[in-house]
């Protein structure tokens, strides 16, 4: 199984969205080729095989990235407590975590955190006008909007989590606080509560878009996705070049490129299992 050439046919100065779609299409076509399907020139929902391949690619990417790699591990990320709350209703679209929101009537701006029970929680920008809960509020990235009714008193405050944060734990000066992710929020296990009236420092594992992954890690993810797609399409059968050892070799290259220390490779349970299987086969071949 050769390396996927993900740069072939993609202009170096192409917009990010174009690069993202082109790279994903390349990976999906490589997956389709493993079952003898024709490649496609665009991502579509009309082709059942491509839809299945796309779903498997996303799932495998999340699974592999959640194992924590040097490239997607973030330390000392500060979670701040919302400063403003506004009653909202109606409107269209979904706001993106962390995007800038602007109140139409006042021009007040801040960072969107979450909406809970009809109340929007925001961290107001430094130097911004005050939010008054007048007219409407709009997301500057998502273009989502809501009608605003009035300011709301902050009776509770939570730490919302980005959906792209695969794993979260307390870090640095907050390390003594035992937390876990529950739904879209951080949960304090010692106090058995979602409520936080203080900022918190966390470490996290981030889901990185395919186009931003290191080449070897991208190759490993797409190879594993191709193997699983072929298994699903052929009732568990895998053609030459897609064995666990072949995918394992991709993993080893990715680990080395990821610049992790030797202990991670030695301590990796899958690596140990594969190495153990190889040693067993070597012993068996010598005793025949």
Attribute tags:
globular, 6-stranded antiparallel β-barrel, 288 residues, alpha+beta, 3-stranded antiparallel beta sheet
**Unreliable runs:** none
Based on CA inertia axes, which overall geometry fits? Answer: globular
**Quaternary organisation:** single chain
Report the radius of gyration as a whole number of Å.
Answer: 24 Å
> Describe the biggest sheet?
6 strands, antiparallel, barrel
Give a structural overview.
With 288 residues, this protein is an alpha+beta fold. It has three domains: 128 residues, no CATH class; 54 residues, no CATH class; 70 residues. Helices cover 32% and strands 23% of the residues. The chain contains six helices and eleven strands. The strands form three sheets. A six-stranded antiparallel beta barrel has the order 2-5-4-3-6-7. Strands 1-11-8 form a three-stranded antiparallel sheet, with no helix packed on it. Strand 3 and strand 4 form a beta hairpin. The longest helix has 19 residues.
């Amino acid at each position: 199984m050769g390396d996927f050439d993900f740069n072939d046919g993609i202009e170096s100065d192409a917009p990010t969205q174009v690069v993202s779609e082109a790279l994903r299409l390349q990976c999906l076509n490589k997956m389709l080729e493993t079952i003898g399907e024709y490649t496609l020139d665009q991502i579509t929902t009309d082709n059942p095989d491509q839809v299945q391949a796309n779903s498997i690619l996303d799932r495998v990417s999340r699974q592999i990235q959640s194992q924590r790699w040097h490239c997607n591990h973030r330390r000392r990320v500060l979670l701040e407590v919302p400063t403003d709350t506004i009653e909202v209703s109606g409107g269209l679209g979904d706001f993106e975590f962390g995007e800038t929101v602007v109140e139409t009537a006042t021009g007040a701006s801040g960072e969107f955190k979450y909406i809970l029970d009809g109340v929007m929680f925001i961290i107001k920008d430094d130097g911004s006008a005050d939010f008054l809960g007048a007219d409407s509020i709009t997301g500057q990235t998502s273009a989502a909007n809501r009608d605003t009714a009035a300011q709301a008193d902050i009776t509770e405050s939570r730490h919302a989590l980005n959906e792209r944060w695969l794993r979260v734990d307390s870090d640095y000066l907050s390390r003594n606080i035992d937390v876990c992710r529950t739904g879209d929020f951080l949960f304090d296990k010692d106090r058995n509560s979602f409520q936080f009236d203080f900022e918190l420092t966390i470490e996290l594992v981030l889901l990185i878009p395919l186009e931003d992954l290191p080449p070897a890690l991208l190759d490993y993810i797409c190879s594993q996705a191709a193997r699983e797609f072929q298994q699903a399409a052929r009732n568990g059968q895998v053609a030459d070049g897609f064995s666990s050892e072949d995918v394992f070799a991709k993993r080893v290259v990715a680990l080395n490129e990821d610049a992790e220390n030797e202990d991670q490779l030695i301590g990796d349970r899958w690596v140990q299992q594969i190495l153990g299987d190889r040693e067993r086969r070597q012993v068996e071949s010598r005793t025949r």
